[in-house]
């Protein structure tokens, strides 16, 4: 089915079919071949990027975060050499750790276009494999919520500690209670600034209209689990809903994801954002600082998980009331960080009021 219905990638207004190469010379430097999707032309840039004519031929520039240089170079430089040979171009890459532009030069315009396109497909693939660095969050760490959460933790340990896998190490840090809207891979300061600028643009374009320039009052109540079997629970989360019964918070979250996906800063995983606040996570058992996207655990994390039996917790705390909270901002939060309050360090934010 991968051959008949290969996955599609949209890059710079162009659509490509990904044909996976099964035999790879270097396991850690996998590459993917490509061809233009329906209605697209492989030899024309479709105004997606600029190819300049020079005295010696043609030239194209591509901004690439320095952490991705190694993937273009490949093991012993083989990836770069092969791209240059097959497209009859020269690819100039800045020194490791130095932010700058990759410059592609060649005597034939078609060769430069081909090299640029192939690099974009490779970079998109490699970027998808990077662990996320930031995420859009809505803080839920107000004092009243934290106090109720600690009360919830105490009662769970009193009543359910004999259930398989239940221990104090599973619980979220109360100072970091939050709703996750979506995760991002931001690999340099330029990309972080782009995300911050996009947040402000979203505020002007639709957030103010949805919120009316006022905080959103939400109620955090009840618990639910992520996976299929409550006896083998990995993530237990608190449910949230708008106090006025509207779907304004859902609208803000969904439209933010739509805009960030369109910008290329975020990958679209679901049709709608699942609004939830993680209260217990088996990933915390081995690493209390773990901040993975709880709904999309990575392959390595699946091996690290030791599920717990959440059946009694779900019965006893089905309607547990964590409290009400005024949501007044969406933050661009930095993974594996803390500010003075104990919450995640903020790289940028969008304020509702």
From TrEMBL:
SUPFAM superfamilies: Eukaryotic type KH-domain (KH-domain type I), LigT-like. InterPro entries: AKAP7-like_phosphoesterase (IPR019510), ASCC1 (IPR009210), Cyclic_Pdiesterase (IPR009097), KH-I_ASCC1 (IPR047538), KH_dom (IPR004087), KH_dom_type_1 (IPR004088), KH_dom_type_1_sf (IPR036612). One of its GO terms (molecular function) is RNA binding. CDD domains: KH-I_ASCC1 (cd22419). Residues 56-124 form the K Homology domain. GO terms for biological process: DNA alkylation repair; regulation of DNA-templated transcription. PROSITE patterns: KH_TYPE_1 (PS50084). Keywords: RNA-binding. One of its GO terms (cellular component) is nucleus. This is Activating signal cointegrator 1 complex subunit 1. It comes from Serinus canaria.
